[in-house]
Specification:
IucA/IucC-like_C; 11 strands; 4-stranded mixed β-sheet; alpha+beta; catalytic activity; Aerobactin siderophore biosynthesis IucA/IucC-like C-terminal domain-containing protein; Transferase(Phosphotransferase), domain 1; globular; 3-stranded antiparallel β-sheet
């Protein structure tokens, strides 16, 4: 089991919650996202409430929230605490929440159960990755693509950007031993993990491990996206993400040496 302070950390940093929303019409079971008709109904609701221009935009923005709430707590717990947070879809509920005027849902996890390392850590890690991706994330992504025709590559890059952020930024201030273990986990996940752990024909994250480039307008090194997440279509001014390929011009980016 997670300690109280550990669960509090996940709630504070990765938008988990143990509270049910009072607005039951807005709450959706993660399992519903496996079913095309129920998934489409939820996307239609989001499109209306959030004034999205299309179901594709709704699907991409939902995938970003879902990846943040589902993927990051599992990988963080695995790499930092050596605890296997059980993120089974039948335990997950998306609860509505807002930060000012931004839609920032939370994930209610009915069980805070964890799996302990038994035997080799690598075998235990594979079980966690398969449960997280093949049995949850991948099934949601395929339903979103089926319902809206949003490119599957966009949904996987939406996932990858948060994974890189987690390991490169969120875990960088932990002790050296934890950082080494976390980096080994990242390299395995991106480059060596079997496609079967993702329920895909090939590792869907590997191709997004591109070098960072120095973007003059941002005055920082950024891993420029290969796909557009369609965020610019949610904003009246057409504002893009800072790593958007639509925004970053070749003459404004200098490859990192």
């Amino acid at each position: 089991m997670l300690q109280t302070e550990e669960m509090h950390y996940l709630q504070q940093h990765f938008r988990l919650t143990q509270k049910s929303s009072m607005d039951h019409l807005e709450t959706v079971k993660a399992l519903d996202l496996f079913e095309p008709k129920k998934c489409e109904s939820y996307l239609n609701h989001l499109t209306k409430v959030l004034d999205f221009p299309s179901l594709q935009v709704a699907a991409s923005q939902l995938s970003k929230r879902y990846a943040y709430m589902v993927v990051l707590p599992v990988l963080f717990s695995m790499s930092v605490w050596n605890k296997g947070l059980m993120m089974k879809a039948d335990h997950c509920f998306i609860e509505p929440d807002w930060k000012a005027d931004r839609w920032m849902p939370r994930l209610r996890l009915e069980s805070g159960l964890t799996s302990n390392i038994e035997g080799e850590r690598e075998v235990w890690r594979d079980r966690l990755i398969q449960e997280l991706f093949a049995e949850n994330i991948t099934r949601v992504w395929h339903t979103l693509t089926l319902v809206t025709r949003v490119p599957l590559s966009t949904l996987w890059e939406n996932t990858a950007i948060y994974i890189f952020w987690l390991y490169e930024e969120k875990i960088k201030d932990f002790d050296n031993h934890t950082r080494q273990r976390a980096n080994a986990d990242l390299q395995y996940l991106i480059h060596a993990a079997s496609p079967r752990l993702f329920g895909e024909a090939q590792n869907p994250l590997k191709k997004f491990d591109s070098p960072k480039t120095y973007v003059i307008d941002e005055d920082s090194y950024i891993r420029i996206r290969q796909t557009c997440c369609l965020y610019y279509q949610t904003h009246i001014l057409g504002t893009c993400c800072k790593s958007c390929p639509r925004k970053v011009k070749k003459n404004k980016a200098i490859p990192q040496i």
